[in-house]
Amino acid sequence: METLEVAKCPVCGGLVEVAGPWVGLEVECPECTEILRVVSLHPLKLYYAFDPDEEPLPEEEHRVPRGE
Ligand SMILES: [Zn+2]
Predict the structure, then answer these.
(1) Distance in Å, CA 28 to ligand 1 centroid
(2) Is 21 within the bounds of a domain?
(3) Residue 59 covered by a domain
(4) For residue 44, which of 4, 7, 20, 52 is within the disulfide window of CB 3.0 to 4.6 Å?
(5) Is the Cβ–Cβ distance between 22 and 59 less than 8 Å?
(6) pLDDT, tens digit (0-9, with 9 covering 90-100), for 7-42
(7) Any domain includes 40
(8) How far, in Å, is the centroid of ligand 1 from the Cα of 7?
């Protein structure tokens, strides 16, 4: 049975539900549609799935203008 856990989206700060999370799992944020990857399970943390160089900085928020 899968457990449903909730993590905060690093992009928009919205809550993302992840069913049966495991490190490396990719999920899409329902708020901003950013593709995120599970980087930690305890606590559950998400980070950008596509992040070429930067290391995860838990307290830092990078907001990329999306040109709406
Ligand atoms: Zn988001």
Answers:
(1) 8
(2) yes
(3) no
(4) 7
(5) no
(6) 999 999 999 999 999 999 999 999 999 999 999 999
(7) yes
(8) 10
